[in-house]
Amino acid sequence: MRVRRPTGSRRTRAVRIPKAALVLLGCLPGLAAVVALVLCAHGIGSTGSADGSRSVGGRPAAAHTVTRPHIVPRSVWAARDNARTRPPPRYDDKVVAVFIHHTDSPNAYDCAEAPRIIRYLAQGMTEARDWDDIGYNFLVDRCGTIYEGRAGGTDRPVTGAHTQGFNHRTTGIAALGTFTAGVPVPKVMTDAIAHLAAWKLGLADIDPRGTVRLVSSNGRSRYADGTTAALPVLAGHKDGYRTSCPGAALSARLPEIRDLAARLQGRT
């Protein structure tokens, strides 16, 4: 079987992330406990590096870490025979941005059906499109359950196939359903997306409310090949590709998802 690997961007640089205070954040309804590291630096200035991380007095600053949310492993939904044809996963050095998607699939599903739906989506990508694996790194159902998507390890910076031209150093999170204008987006779903994004970005101390500079690696993206684009750290699919994804309703929720993700990281 011919395997087509996803296209991605070249090495990227994140712009300077605004200075934020570190605090200890307690529990939020519907989410697991969130732990932020506290760093006291009196009279010492903070500076931002090219990749969006912070330093204090020339030393690396403590990351805005977040507890890892519960993630259902791909073994729950993945067809066993897919492992025989899937090539080894590819990795980047870190995740500096997140792209939010919707799967453009029916919304009226029982959450117990989510593994079957994800398996169907994966088959469409690997069989109909001849991809090597499902493109999304993670999927979230309407009950707020997070599923591992693309193989390679949830805590590692796996190169995805979710946003043409901008797959390197990014993570793709797909909301299971179709969220066009007027369609309700469950709060438990957006809360889970925020928690997941806060955790992944926190591993590199990236502020979800910031901006990142990514270089397009494919002229079929919204930007010509080689163009440096300034994009939101937590972006919608349509920010990097000519599409309506993740739908008008979910796109309208991105600002509050960014704010919640930042609060979960202990930023003010």
Please explain how this structure is put together.
By secondary structure, this protein is an alpha/beta fold. The protein has one domain (13-264): Lysozyme-like (3-Layer(aba) Sandwich). It has helices at residues 114-128, 187-202, 237-240, 248-251, 254-264; strands spanning 13-14, 46-48, 54-56, 59-60, 71-72, 97-102, 138-140, 146-148, 170-175, 211-215, 228-232, 234-236. The strands form three sheets. A six-stranded mixed beta sheet has the order 5-8-7-9-6-12. Strands 1-10-11 form a three-stranded antiparallel beta sheet, with no helix packed on it. Strand 7 (138-140) and strand 8 form a beta hairpin. It is globular. It starts with 12 loop residues before the first strand and ends with a helix. Mean pLDDT is 82; it is low at 1-61.
Question: Notable features of this structure?
Answer:
six-stranded mixed sheet; Lysozyme-like; 5 helices; alpha/beta
Task: Set out the fold topology.
Elements: E1 13-14, E2 46-48, E3 54-56, E4 59-60, E5 71-72, E6 97-102, H1 114-128, E7 138-140, E8 146-148, E9 170-175, H2 187-202, E10 211-215, E11 228-232, E12 234-236, H3 237-240, H4 248-251, H5 254-264
Name of the CATH superfamily: Peptidoglycan recognition protein-like
Q: What is the CATH architecture descriptor?
A: 3-Layer(aba) Sandwich
Q: Give the N-to-C terminal Cα separation.
A: 50 Å
| SS-based class | alpha/beta
Global Rg: 18 Å
* Major sheet summary line: 6 strands, mixed
